[in-house]
Amino acid sequence: MNAKSRTHPYRVLFLCTGNSARSILAESIMNRLGQGRFVAVSAGSMPTGKVNPHAIRLLEKLNYPTADLRSKGWEELSGPEAAALDFVFTVCDNAAAEVCPIWPGQPMSAHWGLPDPAAISGSDAELALAFAETYRMLTNRINIFVNLPLSSLDQLSLQRKLDDIGKTLGETSTT
Predict the structure, then answer these.
(1) Residue 90 bears catalytic tag
(2) Which residue of 43, 79, 86, 159 pairs with 10 in a disulfide if CB–CB is 3.0 to 4.6 A?
(3) Among this protein's residues, is 92 annotated catalytic?
(4) Quick one: pLDDT at residue 107?
(5) Total domain count for the chain?
(6) Pick the catalytic residue: 24, 92, 110, 130?
């Protein structure tokens, strides 16, 4: 990655199976923390067709824009007409195990798997807690990522760092 001569933001794709919770949260967080240096989108291999209401509620509570968020299939972002991607992160184990399309731009990829807060059954308070925990872990990982010195890392070093970020649970170090 040569960020020094870059005139446009890095494009980041977050993948999950349903594209209703984790990948939606990650897209929103990246677009905020990336501050124009990164533009994030999300998609799913088998999208549910709707964003989880608990994800929307949490994002709205934290003053994120939600009007344009939607659950969509990854085919919208692949193929010869699609915009080139710089990074692809899977945030669920199912999507990581699937055969993904060929992404335009030969992006770097890593698996940042997290438990699915949408799979939790319980009270609204328990669901809110599960979504808040997923949000916290994604925020920590994305914060580490956006603060990497991309212009000074070679491909191998960057790949190692991307993989390490996927193992980050809650700590806020900048490995």
Answers:
(1) no
(2) 86
(3) yes
(4) 92
(5) 1
(6) 92
